[in-house]
Design a protein that fits this description.
hydrolase activity, Fumarylacetoacetase-like_C, metal-binding, 227 residues, 5 helices, Fumarylacetoacetase_C_sf, hydrolase, five-stranded mixed beta sheet, alpha+beta, 15% helix, 33% strand, six-stranded mixed beta sheet
């Protein structure tokens, strides 16, 4: 018997490439982690302390479809690498950080840019522009034991066959071990946590019917249709 007064919410899971599913606990997203993207968003690209915002676990969506969200007419793609943790803790050193990584995947940080911009002007949080339903299309997680730890290699995004974003994972200002270490100083990380590692320059809008294809070496490609 359960003492719950309402039905317990389901644990949200995303697929693992080799079989099984990965239960998601939290989703941390780093902002402006590529210098060229910082510039295109009107910010100084020099290395400064990282900042993070969060999406909800069930924003991660492996369906291959992205429903255009309501109350926005300017929805942007942001191509990202997903980092999935198998363990966590606090005050994790940079040298030990990769020991906590289960694997890597592909994800898009879809953004209601017009609503995000309104919140910025008002000095309010961004969640209305970032953490809406199905705002993080994603692919399966590939185990680090099979693909290794990814710290370099091209990341590209095409929309309807046209290249929109091109970069390299080695261009990240804050590398994966540093992100994990920094987050662990402020949060208690745990198995099931996911980190989206930032996007290269070239972000832009999508429309219904568009097809986005995100690719990273060793992680294959992620095809997402805007519906």
């Amino acid at each position: 018997m359960s003492d719950h007064v309402i039905p317990a919410p389901q644990v949200h899971v995303i697929p693992v490439a080799s079989g099984g599913t990965f239960p998601v606990r939290r989703v941390y997203c780093i902002g402006r982690n590529y210098a060229a993207h910082a510039i295109e968003m009107g910010h100084d690209p020099n290395r400064e302390p990282p900042f993070f915002f969060q999406k909800n676990p069930n924003n991660l969506d492996p369906s291959g479809e992205f429903p255009y969200p309501p109350h926005s007419s300017d929805v942007h793609y942001e191509a990202e690498m997903l980092v999935a943790l198998k363990s966590g803790g606090t005050n994790i050193s940079v040298d030990d950080a990769l020991d906590h990584v289960f694997g890597y995947g592909l994800s898009l940080d879809m953004t209601r840019r017009d609503l995000q911009g309104q919140m910025k002007k008002m000095g309010r949080p961004w969640e209305i522009g970032k953490a809406f339903e199905r705002s993080a299309p994603c692919g399966p997680i590939h185990k680090a034991s099979k693909v290794g730890h990814l710290d370099r290699g091209p990341i590209t995004l095409t929309v309807n066959g046209e290249v929109r974003q091109e970069g390299d994972l080695n261009q990240m200002i804050w590398k994966v071990p540093e992100m994990i270490s920094y987050l662990s100083d402020y949060f208690e990380l745990a198995a099931g946590d996911v980190i989206l590692s930032g996007t290269p320059s070239g972000v832009g809008p999508v429309n219904r019917g568009d097809v986005m294809v995100l690719a990273v070496d060793k992680l294959g490609s992620l095809n997402v249709r805007v519906t």
